[in-house]
Structure formats: C-alpha cells, structure tokens
C-alpha cells in the first residue's frame, strides 16, 4: 500500500481499525480521514458519508471486512456499491480480508475485492481464520500490475523473502483449510453462545452488538471508564481485554476475543470479578 501512495495524497480509512491501516499512510505524509462505523447503525458504514469525504486528491479507500474489532460483515449490496464508486472515481480500494472465510453464515461471504475490481488490492493471512499466526505468512492479490510491481519492489527493500519452512507449511495448511476453518469457526460459535448468555445477564453493565464473522466482538461498558476497567481486570483477574483507545477511539467499547478454547474459564473469572466489584 505504501508503494501506491505519495506525500499529500488523501486516504479514507474504515474506522475503528487496526493501527497500521492508517499509520502507514500517515508515515509518508498522507492526509487520512476516518470513515466511521457506529454501533447505533449495527456498525454499518454509510456510503453517503464516504461520498462526502472524497476529495480531488483522494487516492485510496481502505476497508476491513469482516471487521476487526466489531465483527461486522459488509452486505453484498454495500460491497458492490463501494467497488463501483471506487472504480468510477479511479480510487484504489485496499480491502483487508484477513478474517474472510470466518463468516458464521458462509452464504454471506463476500468475494475478494480483487476479483470484482481491477483497481482493488486484497490482503490475506494465515494467522486469523486458519489460526496459524506463528507462520507469519500473508499475501496480497491485485489485477493492477503497476501497483503489484510497486509493492513487490518495496518488499525487496524490507523483508526480501519469507521463511521457506513457513511457506511450505502455509501451502499444506491452505490445501486443508476447510478442516482448519471448521475447527476454528466451531470454537467461535460455541463461545458466542456463552457470550450471548453473559451479555443477556448483564444488560445493565454492557451493550452487545453480536458479530457476524471473525473471532472478536466490540461490546460497550455502560458504567465507569473502560481503560480503568481493563487495567483493573487484567491485574486482579488475569483477563485481557483491549479498550477502544487501542484503536484510536474515545468510546467505552472494548475488543473481546472469541477464538480461544479457554473462554468459558475466562468468563467464570469475569463473573467473579464483577460480583466482587458490585
């Protein structure tokens, strides 16, 4: 992405977001605007807001779907409208798809942006849906040869090449990705049921917009300060939650992970913590 942008270009980023989606652009002097997702809209992005943000020097729109940290999955209609807009305006669409294939309903899965938009770049990794973070393997795909060549050239000056054993193991994993997906999505769905019950029980303390995909949700604490809550919780109960400030947000939301088998035990500790601080 760095290779496709220059100083003073304007970039629009789906927000809240993983830090590097905006900071890489900022580091080379780009102007960055936030395309804000809001809980009251079910974390849905407003395409009219996007249109109003486009400037004469807008060179890229960066999205993440399925979304970290909210678990929002863009609808097919919105996805198609976004790609059409980007193509009409000749704006690069960078689509962070690292949680793709983790949809709870596979019929809602979106195509890769690079397959429907010749001016789009799709990002994928082995670390999320497949649960193989230790391999440190990811990929980008695009039909735009100019952008592809620029990214490849930049990589020669940074990481040069991957670990050969990691590449071999990643290839084996992708050939059997169906089994990995079934295992990991199964864990997430089981944990979702537990969290649904937890948040139904504690409606006076939290809001909960149920995610549609991925291994995370973005609940909101209704009482107190979320940064203080998370700090106290990890010190007293050993439970780590990410406050919204880690995503550059000032809201009282926090990221909740759903991908670990020991989530039931963590929820038991959380219940004990809430009871002791009631």
The whole-angstrom Rg is 20 Å
CATH class of the largest domain: Alpha Beta
Q: SSE string, helix = H, strand = E? A: EHEHEHEHEEHHHEEEHEEH
> In what order do the strands lie side by side in the largest sheet?
2-1-3-4-5-6
Low-confidence stretches: none
In the CATH hierarchy, what is the superfamily of the largest domain? Type I PLP-dependent aspartate aminotransferase-like (Major domain)
The residue fraction in helices comes out at 25-40%
Structural class: alpha/beta
Chain-averaged pLDDT: 96
Any idea how many domains? 2
CATH architecture of the largest domain: 3-Layer(aba) Sandwich
Indicate the overall shape.
Answer: globular
The count of strands amounts to 11
Largest sheet: 6 strands, mixed
Task: Say what the CATH topology of the largest domain is.
Answer: Aspartate Aminotransferase, domain 2
Strand content: 15-25%
If helices are DSSP runs of H or I spanning 4 or more residues, what is the number of helices? Answer: 9
Fold and architecture overview:
It is built from nine helices and eleven strands. It has 278 residues and is of the alpha/beta class. It has two domains: 2-175, Aspartate Aminotransferase, domain 2 (3-Layer(aba) Sandwich), CATH 3.40.640; 178-276, Aspartate Aminotransferase, domain 1. Strands 2-1-3-4-5-6 form a six-stranded mixed β-sheet, with helices on both faces.
């Amino acid at each position: 992405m760095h290779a496709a942008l220059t100083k003073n270009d304007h970039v629009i980023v789906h927000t809240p977001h993983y830090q590097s989606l905006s900071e890489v652009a900022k580091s080379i002097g780009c102007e960055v605007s936030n395309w804000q997702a809001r809980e009251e809209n079910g974390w849905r992005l407003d395409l009219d807001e996007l249109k109003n943000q486009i400037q004469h020097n807008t060179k890229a729109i960066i999205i993440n779907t399925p979304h970290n940290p909210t678990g929002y999955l863009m609808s097919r209609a919105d996805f198609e409208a976004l790609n059409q807009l980007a193509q009409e305006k000749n704006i690069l669409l960078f689509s962070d798809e690292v949680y793709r294939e983790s949809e709870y309903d596979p019929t809602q899965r979106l195509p890769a942006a690079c397959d429907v938009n010749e001016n789009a770049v799709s990002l994928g990794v082995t670390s999320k849906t497949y649960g193989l973070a230790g391999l440190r393997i990811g990929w980008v795909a695009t039909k735009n040869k100019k952008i592809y060549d620029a990214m490849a050239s930049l990589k020669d000056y940074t990481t040069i090449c991957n670990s050969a054993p990691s590449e071999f193991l990643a290839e084996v994993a992708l050939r059997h990705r169906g089994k990995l997906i079934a295992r990991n999505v199964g864990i997430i769905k089981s944990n979702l049921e537990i969290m649904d019950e937890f948040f139904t029980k504690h409606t006076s303390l939290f809001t909960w917009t149920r995610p549609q995909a991925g291994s995370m949700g973005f609940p909101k604490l209704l009482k107190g300060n979320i940064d203080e809550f998370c700090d106290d919780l990890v010190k007293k109960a050993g439970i780590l939650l990410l406050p919204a400030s880690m995503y550059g947000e000032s809201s009282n939301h926090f990221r909740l992970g759903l991908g670990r088998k020991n989530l039931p035990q963590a929820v038991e500790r959380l219940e004990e913590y809430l009871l002791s601080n009631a």
